[in-house]
């Protein structure tokens, strides 16, 4: 924003409530269409930035095209961040479910059953014909 005298600008009937530009085309209280999507710029400012514009002087709240574009970009960015946050929370929820399953008694008991197996295996326990072309033990002289 340039060094402008706000009082001078406010004497004008039409100025942007976001940047004080005198090139305003849209009333923020109206609903507009962006493609097939409805937009109300007053509500968007409130929902995205928690800015509640006060209009004590009875003038219309106007917004310029540049600020509309910035507001639309901010809304799109907010939606992306919210979707990513939701995806992270869902993934974290699934991690917690997986961790809970692994920490239940049933799965732990099943894992402990492996200790009962005899893991002393010798070469005579294998039928080498199943593993080599000529039935000889490869790698053993």
UniProtKB/TrEMBL annotation:
Q: Which GO terms describe its molecular function?
A: zinc ion binding
Q: Alphabetically list the UniProt keywords.
A: Metal-binding, Zinc, Zinc-finger
A Pfam family this chain is assigned to:
zf-AD
Q: Where does Zn(2+) bind?
A: 16, 19, 64, 67
Q: Its domain of life?
A: Eukaryota
Domain ZAD, chain residue ranges per copy: 14-91
Which cellular component appears as one GO term in the record? nucleus
What Gene3D superfamilies does the database record attribute to this sequence?
A: 3.40.1800.20
Protein name, please?
ZAD domain-containing protein
């Amino acid at each position: 924003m340039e060094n402008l005298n706000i009082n001078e600008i406010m004497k004008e009937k039409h100025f942007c409530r976001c940047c004080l530009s005198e090139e305003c085309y849209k009333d923020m209280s109206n609903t507009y269409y962006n493609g097939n999507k409805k937009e109300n710029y007053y509500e968007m400012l409130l929902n995205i930035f928690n800015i509640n514009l006060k209009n004590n002087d009875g003038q219309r709240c106007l917004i310029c095209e540049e600020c509309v574009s910035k507001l639309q970009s901010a809304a799109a960015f907010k939606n992306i961040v919210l979707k990513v946050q939701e995806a992270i929370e869902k993934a974290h929820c699934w991690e917690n479910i997986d961790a809970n399953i692994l920490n239940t008694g049933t799965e732990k008991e099943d894992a402990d059953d492996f200790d009962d197996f005899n893991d002393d295996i010798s070469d005579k326990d294998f039928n080498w014909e199943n593993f080599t072309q000529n039935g000889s033990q490869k790698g053993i002289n």
